[in-house]
């Protein structure tokens, strides 16, 4: 394994460093997660904004030199990344922001942000000639891996809690994954996946546990900077569960900053559901990460033990950011808000960042002139049942113009 632009791994907890020659998941000393270290000085010599000016590859592969991938001639053929960044022109006085942007990552192939992570991990597995790829998920990471693997003729082994939304399970089965619905939580599925990895020697794509996933997720930050014409936003609102998305996004911003492509860094605002708030609790209290008993409608960010929690907390603090907790009712309301404000349909976890933005506006922590990016991490069709809870039901009528007119005359005045 060469990964020519990377120097090795560094433990996020004890700081121990390892060479890049041998693939590894976790630190051999303290068993914590590892961070892949990019050779900034080497890349910086021949790397500037002009590298992108004539690059017509509008996907995560436009950033190949900044990714831990050696393969160049057999990349995943699906359109991954370069998702839209919509500027919201709102007359809603409750929002009152001049520079609000929605990053719609539900536009990825499997309708989830997780395709960024899965793409880099999958190519790493292929480069290592792994025969079987496995992963545990609340649904999105799994359906992503199944989708991307199918495009490469591979069938992964997937573990997920049996309570995962039906749409996500259907995706897995359609793409040909071998699916094991575990009678337990996401954390139970995660631990079982690790045991299977150890027993059978499979390649494990698990969030946090596999440092290559973070590298894929950092491409979202790269895109935001380019799409804002090489200007860093003031704040980026990110839904948080395991913590891997926010740590990846922070790594992306830092990579661009250290390469001299931007002159400042944004603040990261981590938004968690009140019923799954281990990372937010640690940031708010300044204490250690503590296991919670997660219960939230936002299944994609429902975790007892945040598997990339330590680095997530460090990333939030290093950015000068904050953590916000929101209720399930706030999240459901935000499904409607985001859809009616921007035309973007997000699942509960996907719109949690927006719920956090509303809360911070309400307590006076956002300036009207701030440039704000809210990352929507998953499409609403992933969880239609929750969308129906948020939006209500249609009016049921007979095929009668009189009945229609009677009801319409009432609702048109609302």
Explain this structure.
This protein has 414 residues and is of the alpha/beta class. Among the domains are: 1-38; 85-110 and 213-391, Rossmann fold, CATH 3.40.50.1100. The chain contains 15 helices and 13 strands. It has helices at 40-44, 50-53, 114-127, 140-151, 166-174, 186-200, 211-217, 219-227, 244-258, 278-285, 309-318, 328-342, 348-362, 384-391, 401-411; strands at 6-11, 17-19, 34-38, 85-88, 99-104, 133-136, 157-161, 178-182, 203-204, 235-239, 267-273, 322-326, 371-376. The chain has a six-stranded mixed sheet, with helices on both faces. It has a four-stranded parallel sheet with strand order 8-7-6-9, sandwiched between helices. The protein has a three-stranded antiparallel sheet with strand order 2-1-3. Helix 7 packs across helix 9 (244-258) and helix 12 (328-342) packs across helix 14. The longest helix is centred in the middle third of the chain and has 15 residues, at 186-200. The termini are far apart. The mean pLDDT is 95.
**Termini, distance in Å?**
64 Å
Low-confidence stretches: none
- Structural class by sheet pairing and helices: alpha/beta
List the strand order in the largest sheet. 4-5-13-10-11-12
Question: Radius of gyration over alpha carbons?
Answer: 21 Å
Largest sheet: 6 strands, mixed
Shape label: globular
Beta-strand residue fraction: 15-25%
Please state the second-level CATH architecture of the domain at 85-110 and 213-391.
Answer: 3-Layer(aba) Sandwich
CATH fold node name of the domain at 85-110 and 213-391: Rossmann fold
Our count of helices gives 15
How many individual β-strands? 13
Q: Helix fraction?
A: 25-40%
CATH class of the domain at 85-110 and 213-391: Alpha Beta
N-to-C SSE string, H for helix and E for strand: EEEHHEEHEHEHEHEHHEHEHHEHHEHH
What's the rounded overall pLDDT mean? 95
